[in-house]
Amino acid sequence: QVQVVESGGGLVQPGGSLRLSCAVAGFDLDDYDLAWFRQAPGKEREAVSCVNHRDGTTKYEESAKGRFTFFRDNSENAFYLQMDSLQAEDTGVYYCAVLILCGNYYGSWGQGTQVTVSS
């Protein structure tokens, strides 16, 4: 079975935190790059974070650096995005993805979870 499911989105005030979860089935996570994307209204989808499985390096979108942290839990076949110091500009639909390669869209995607940062 192939399954990618996000959870953890919601409404949070500026400066608050959320942790997004991505539960994965049907993949050996050691063989894929793991990513979080977001899409805000009127904007293109952008990569927030992606982990290169070959060397374990993690990339972050510039505005997320120092605020967002990628975690992986092999025992539960899941990975996470811890988001701190959230800003209104972080609002959007967040997607997790199991990718062939960071930098493209080819792979398996979750359904998306809404993150809204608002006073």
Written overview of the protein:
The protein has about 120 residues and is an all-beta fold. About 0% of the residues lie in helices and about 50% in strands. It is built from no helices and eleven strands. The strands form two sheets. Strands 2, 4, 5, 6, 9, 10 and 11 form a seven-stranded mixed β-sheet that branches. A four-stranded antiparallel β-sheet has the order 1-3-8-7, with no helix packed on it. It starts with a strand and ends with a strand.
Summary keywords:
119 residues, mainly beta
| Class of secondary structure makeup | mainly beta
Order of helices and strands: EEEEEEEEEEE
The profile of the biggest β sheet is: 7 strands, mixed
What share of the residues does DSSP label as strand, in percent?
A: over 45%
Poorly predicted residue ranges: none
- Share of helical residues: under 10%
- The number of helical runs is 0
Rg on CA atoms, Å: 13 Å
- Quote the average pLDDT: 95
Shape type = globular
User: How many strands appear in the DSSP assignment?
Assistant: 11
Q: Whole-Å distance between the termini?
A: 41 Å
Write the SSE topology.
Layout: E1 3-7, E2 10-12, E3 18-25, E4 33-39, E5 46-51, E6 58-60, E7 68-73, E8 78-83, E9 92-99, E10 107-109, E11 113-117
Parallel strand pairs: 2-11
Antiparallel strand pairs: 1-3, 3-8, 4-5, 4-9, 5-6, 7-8, 9-10, 9-11
In short:
By secondary structure, this protein is mostly beta strands. It has strands at residues 3-7, 10-12, 18-25, 33-39, 46-51, 58-60, 68-73, 78-83, 92-99, 107-109, 113-117.
